[in-house]
Automatic annotation (TrEMBL):
Keywords: Oxidoreductase. PANTHER family: 15-HYDROXYPROSTAGLANDIN DEHYDROGENASE [NAD(+)] (PTHR44229:SF4). It holds the Pfam family adh_short. It comes from the Eukaryota. GO terms for molecular function: oxidoreductase activity, acting on the CH-OH group of donors, NAD or NADP as acceptor. This is NAD-dependent 15-hydroxyprostaglandin dehydrogenase. GO terms for cellular component: cytoplasm. InterPro entries: NAD(P)-bd_dom_sf, SDR_fam.
Amino acid sequence: MSFSVLGKSAIITGAGSGLNLCFAKALLSRGCNVLLADIALRPEAKELLSNQPGSLRPPRAIYQRCDVTKWTDLEEMFARAEAEFGPLDIVCPGAGVYEPLWSNFWHPPGSSLSTDRTNSDGYRMLDINLIHPIRVTQLAIRHFLEQKKRGSIVHISSIAGQDASLPTPMYIAGKWGISGFVRSLAPLEKGLGIRVTAVAPGVVKTPLWVESPEKMEMIAKGDEWVTPEAVAEVMVDLIEKDECRAGRIDGGTILEVGKRVRRVEQFNDPGPGGAGNMMSNKDKATRKIVEMLKEGGY
């Protein structure tokens, strides 16, 4: 139930930078309208929008400011996209954060670095990484059913959806959740023509990593990066193809993207490995946390 993205329209959250911006560029280059939703735009995203042609002819890129933790913002995002483009075909709830200090398991609510509060109702990081993709998927399914058309929902999981890591336990929990969520919605493709899939990238060279010193401590000099452009191309494959070099593509498919691309199986999977999937200094970060806890820093 694949389809060409040419002449189609898409929403991408978190498209103001990094991987999701690369995905937006990949869709635009193939003739697909894109609404970039994010709380802010990095200079490279602003440049993309400023280079848009003056006419209303597709493909077009537009920006909608959106805090993905606010469900009213998500509703407004869909309304704007429909008003600008008409019926939608592709939705990517891609916005995510990588265990930031302001919502981090090792800096709990009430600590000096955390913006999560002891009297709040959740962790902002999980609201972004897990709750927002679930809510956006609900809105996308509603839209596709109302429009009586097929559609594609592409999620961003991670090799962290199979791995475990003491330094980033909430990130791990969120990505395990995304992978299980995507697999659970697999029957929607045969039943309703709605394909729900995910990529599971390795270590992608984006601002999420390179502008975070505490995360870069886990990377050794010899570790290899995955490019966001390579991941974006696989995301397009999840929409346009029923088979790729990694195997079949259908509802529930998760494709790991390191230096190679492989299909992640639900059972008896060997797990992530190889170039692009390694953080050689992760144990150093683990020891640092253990020492902090021994010293009463929690």
